[in-house]
Prior knowledge:
By secondary structure, the chain is mostly helical. The protein is built from six helices and no strands.
Amino acid sequence: MFAAIIFATVALGVVIAALKEKELLSKPFGQTMLLLAALGEVLPLIALTVYQNINGTSSRSVWLLLLIFLAAIFLLLRFRKPYQWFAEIDKSTTQLDIRLAFFF
């Protein structure tokens, strides 16, 4: 199971470079591929966290993890202003989007 989660990770930087080279980023297909690549980065990280908590030594950590996820969702919904600002900035290059996402 651990190996399957590791191999499910997608290199987002490679996908962005390939889409930009073929000039597909502005097209619906390119945006869909970018979204799938982003999910391919985030979902395996979450899956690894859940896997470790389930197979760890303490069952208490699973409930703590659930509490942390719920708090994160609440905070994301509560403080939307940075995300609205992020949507308004100039999107002349994808590197700006990626760097700001990692900054947040």
